[in-house]
Amino acid sequence: MAPNIVKLFAGFCMLYFGSEFLVRGGVNIALSLRIKKLIIGLTLCAFGTSSPEFVVSFLAGLNKSYDVCIGNVVGSNISNIFLVLGIAAIIRPIKIDNQLLKIDFPVFLITVGFFVAICFSGEITRITGSMMLVFLLLYLLLLMKNGREEEIGDSAVSGIKKRKTAWDSAVAVTGLAVLIAGGDFTVRGAVGIADAFNISKLFIGLTVVAIGTSLPELFASSVASYRRHGDISIGNVLGSNIFNICFVLGVVSLFFPLSVPKDVIRFDNWCLLAGSLFVGLIAYKKRKIGRREGIFLLLLYVIFIFCIYVRASG
Length: 314
Description:
mainly alpha, two-stranded antiparallel ribbon, two-stranded antiparallel sheet, globular
């Protein structure tokens, strides 16, 4: 038990410092290249913080632990919406960029809706996995097309040019590497502790593993929100959820067609869909996610954890 606790603590520390480096490097790269910080959040930060989900899900697929694989992605996405976005909004209200409303929120909602729909078939096949990857590629191409920053003035750019882009890239990559390692340490420690209590694989995937692999998103979004980079914070959550479904499950299903647990279809997917629609509704109606909404999201997450705990106990 003690080694697992040490791994958990070490993972937390690595996640914090990794998120600091990733956010700082990402923001400076965005400014120096005249790229919107939102794009950095939707791509670099999102892909980097989704790496633990990919590693865990792929290893779970190799071990034929499909419940952990599916539960990890679904639980992580639910954690991102309710836990990560809730805490980030409580730290500082998040303003919604116009691009989010025109492009990224629709893509996010379509991705979640498609995932929930295909789960009713009971399996994620190689064909559906390929469709997810093609959809992700088209989305990334659209981001590249709309990624140039037109609102940054020459004074801001000239000031940031004093920094070397290579150095900022090294800082971001270092942060990304530390985040991934921290996620691995955290998950290993948490799973080791959870296994001692003989908890079901799906429950572990939806809670311990999901929260563990969501910690990079949590730390990255919280740090970004604290430093008044709300566009990176919300972009990280939306982008990470899109990557989790399209990239993680898309790639894993190419190697191992995934059977979807019935409990995911009956309950967990509906929580994911409801949370996604709620956040989308708030974004379109208020153009921001305030502290009140953040507290409500956290409350919903506590209720979700309690419900699956009761289900696992029964």
